[in-house]
Structure formats: structure tokens, C-alpha cells
């Protein structure tokens, strides 16, 4: 069998420099930030296509995350989804816009319970449809398979738990 000349042989593969764990962690944080901004842009674009410019993407996601539950603003904050002033301001706006109903708790008059109005449920359904379309497209493309999205989620839950423990440790 004739030997291949060096000109036609594949280039020798040199090992790439190994990034440190810190560099990989920092890259993950940057990706998370970009993903969050892109998510907000996707929600904004969807609502602009629907002619709904009265909601911010953050408000639409708050409606989505509120779902069918009836909760207090404090419970939304304790779920770790929103900062205090952010959730209070946005809930107030959503009540004014008619997407969220609120009423004082019988047991603790300082607390306000909130739930979606039919208009809020319609917004939640639109966001849910958007996410279902994205999940289907990602599934068809194979993006969710390597590594499996369930494995990625497990890893992110571990990071979330670590961060939460760090915050509790500080106080």
C-alpha cells in the first residue's frame, strides 16, 4: 500500500490548552446572562407580533410564573424569582392593567394575595405556547440531547443550591 505524502496527511492535532475551572465557570455565568437577555427579547418580540405592547417581558414572565396559583408577593420573592421592589412594582402595574387581581389576606391584613384574571391567564397561555414552540424546535434540532437537558438542569439546580447556601452563610 503506498504511503501518503506529508502534504496529503491530516494535520497533527495538538491538545488545546485546558481552561481552568474558574474560566469555565465565568463563561457559564456570561452565557446565563446572555440567555436571560435573549429570553426577554424573545418574549418581547412575541408580544410585539401579537400587538401587545402594554406589557414588559419581565411582567409577562411574572404572569407566566404566577400561573394558576394564588400567592402573596412575599411568596413570589421567597421562590427566588424576583427582587422585592421589582415584584411589588410589577404586580402593582399588572393590577392596574387588569392582568392580576389582588386582595388583602383575612389573616394578615398587611399581606396581599394575587392571582391572574382571565386576561392574565390569556397572557400566560401565550407565553406557554411560545415556550412549547421553542421546546419543540430544540427537540427536533437535537440541542436538548447532548448532554441531555435533564442532566444540564440537575447541574444548574446544584449551582442554585450552592449559591443559596452562600447567601444564607453570609447572614
From TrEMBL:
One of its GO terms (molecular function) is DNA-binding transcription factor activity. Pfam families: HTH_27. Residues 25-161 form the HTH marR-type domain. It comes from the Bacteria. The keyword Cell membrane does not apply. Keywords: DNA-binding, Transcription, Transcription regulation. GO terms for biological process: response to stress. InterPro entries: HTH_MarR-typ (IPR000835), MarR/SlyA-like (IPR039422), Tscrpt_reg_MarR-type_CS (IPR023187), WH-like_DNA-bd_sf (IPR036388), WH_DNA-bd_sf (IPR036390). PANTHER family: TRANSCRIPTIONAL REGULATOR, MARR FAMILY, TRANSCRIPTIONAL REGULATORY PROTEIN. This is MarR family transcriptional regulator.
Amino acid at each position: 500500500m503506498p504511503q501518503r505524502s506529508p502534504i496529503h496527511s491530516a494535520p497533527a492535532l495538538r491538545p488545546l490548552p485546558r481552561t481552568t475551572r474558574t474560566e469555565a465557570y465565568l463563561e457559564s455565568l456570561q452565557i446565563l446572562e446572555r440567555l436571560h437577555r435573549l429570553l426577554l427579547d424573545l418574549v418581547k418580540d412575541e408580544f410585539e407580533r401579537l400587538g401587545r405592547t402594554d406589557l414588559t417581558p419581565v411582567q409577562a414572565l411574572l404572569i407566566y410564573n404566577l400561573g394558576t396559583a394564588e400567592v402573596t408577593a412575599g411568596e413570589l420573592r421567597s421562590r427566588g424569582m424576583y427582587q422585592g421592589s421589582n415584584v411589588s412594582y410589577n404586580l402593582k402595574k399588572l393590577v392596574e392593567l387588569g392582568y392580576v387581581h389582588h386582595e388583602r389576606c383575612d389573616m394578615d391584613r398587611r399581606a396581599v394575595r394575587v392571582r391572574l384574571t382571565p386576561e392574565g391567564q390569556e397572557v400566560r397561555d401565550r407565553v406557554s405556547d411560545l415556550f412549547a414552540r421553542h421546546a419543540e424546535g430544540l427537540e427536533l434540532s437535537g440541542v436538548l440531547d447532548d448532554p441531555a437537558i435533564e442532566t444540564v438542569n440537575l447541574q444548574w439546580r446544584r449551582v442554585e443550591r450552592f449559591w443559596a447556601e452562600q447567601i444564607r452563610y453570609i447572614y
